[in-house]
Amino acid sequence: MAVYSFFIFTFFTTFATKTRRLIMKICIFCSANEQIDPDFFRITEELGRWVAKNGHSIVFGGVNMGLMECVARAAHEAGGQTIGVIPSIIEKNGRKSDYVDVEIFCDNLSDRKDLMLAHSDVAVALPGGVGTLDEVFSQLASASIGYHQKPVILYNMKGFWNPLLSMLDTMNSQGVIRSTLRHHLLVANSLEELEEELRVRSLEFGVRR
Fold first, then answer.
1. For 162, which of 4, 171, 201, 208 is 20 to 30 Å away at the CA?
2. Which pLDDT value is given to residue 21?
3. What are phi and psi of 160, to 5 degrees?
C-alpha cells in the first residue's frame, strides 16, 4: 500500500510540475506614434491580450501614445501586469501611460534601456522608429559580446522588418557583422510564430508558476 501511494504521489507531483505555466517578463520595443498603419494597432492589441492570457508580464517604455499605449492597455485590461520604465522627461510632459501597474522611474533613455533589459527575459520589437532601432541594436550589441543571453524577436507585422533583415544580410555578406548575430535576433511573421519563439525562450528563461 505504501509503495502504491508513493507512485500515485509521484505521478501527480510530476504532472502538476509539467503543467504549471512558465512565465516571463516580455520587453516590448515599439512606436509611440499614432499616425501609423491601423493593422499594427490591431495586431499589437492581440499580442497584449495573449501576453496577459498566458500569465506573462509586459515591460515597456511607459508612454501613453502609439503602440506603447496599445499593448499596455490590452494587457492591463485583460488582467496582465505591465511594468513601465519611465524617463523623467516623459512624466514631466504628461506622457505617462495610465496602464502601468509597476512604475520604474529613470533619468534618461540610456537608463531606460538598461532597466528594461534588467527587468525582462526576452524582447519583442514591434514596428517602430529610431528609438526602437536604438533599443534593438543596443540589446543585440550587448548580447553579441556576452553581457547577456536575452534575444530580440522582430515581430514582422506585414513585412515591416524585411528591409532591416535585408540590410543585415548585406552587412553579413560584406563581413562587417558576424553571422552569429542572428543567434540573438529572431523573426516571427505571425502571432503563432511569436508564440512558439516565446515558448522556446520560456524553457530557458521562464519561471514556473
1. 201
2. 56
3. -55, -40
